[in-house]
Write a structure and sequence with these properties.
Oligomer: single chain
Strand content: 15-25%
Largest sheet: 7 strands, mixed
Number of strands: 7
């Protein structure tokens, strides 16, 4: 069984912020495959799919602990379902990527992302697959104000495109090895500007 984790902060005030790209991507995935989050357990919101037509069994999970404590919720669900680290995929925002870009990685550091760092700390490994969705860096705002702010009107179409692309990558990963998914989706995006 695969565990697909989207990172974000709970509550309507955070819903469309840059820091909620993981939640947003999972919502996009749900629309695409026709499922929904239907229960709250393990300090989060989840959906368990045992016989998916678009891949094997999987769990979708949004930790509701707030970003910096995401690992405590992920550790609970991993422990309960006895999920192998190799079957975990985490989706989150990344300031080092431009809005509209997304990258798949098989392992690595958190890059300063506190939610991903919490997961690495709680699971005791950095060998965790991830999809990073670009939000760019602030020009004038503080990092906190920037990530908790909403994308600009100019950024929004690119970010929407990236979340759809990342959701497609999740669908592919459910029925293919991750290295194949990386090869298919880690391509430079054409820019019009």
């Amino acid at each position: 069984m695969k565990l697909i984790v989207g990172l974000g902060n709970p509550g309507p005030q955070y819903e469309k912020t840059r820091h909620n790209m993981g939640f947003r991507c999972l919502d996009c995935f749900c629309e695409r495959v026709g499922v929904d989050f239907d229960r709250e357990r393990f300090k989060g919101s989840c959906h368990v799919e045992k016989e998916a037509s678009h891949g094997g069994s999987y769990i979708l999970f949004k930790p509701l602990t707030f970003m910096n404590l995401s690992g405590t919720a992920v550790r609970e669900i991993v422990s309960y379902f006895k999920i192998d680290l190799d079957d975990i995929l985490v989706i989150y925002d990344d300031m080092d990527l431009l809005p509209g870009d997304f990258r798949l990685r098989a392992k690595g550091s958190s890059g300063g992302h506190k939610g991903m760092q919490s997961i690495i700390d709680c699971l005791g490994s950095s060998n965790i697959k991830r999809i990073k969705i670009g939000i760019g860096k602030p020009e004038f705002a503080s990092v906190v104000d920037y990530v908790l702010g909403r994308p600009s009107k100019e950024e929004e179409p690119s970010i929407e495109e990236a979340t759809h692309g990342a959701a497609e990558a999740i669908v592919h990963f459910l029925s293919h090895p991750f290295d194949e998914t990386m090869s298919r989706f880690n391509r430079p995006r054409e820019r019009t500007r």
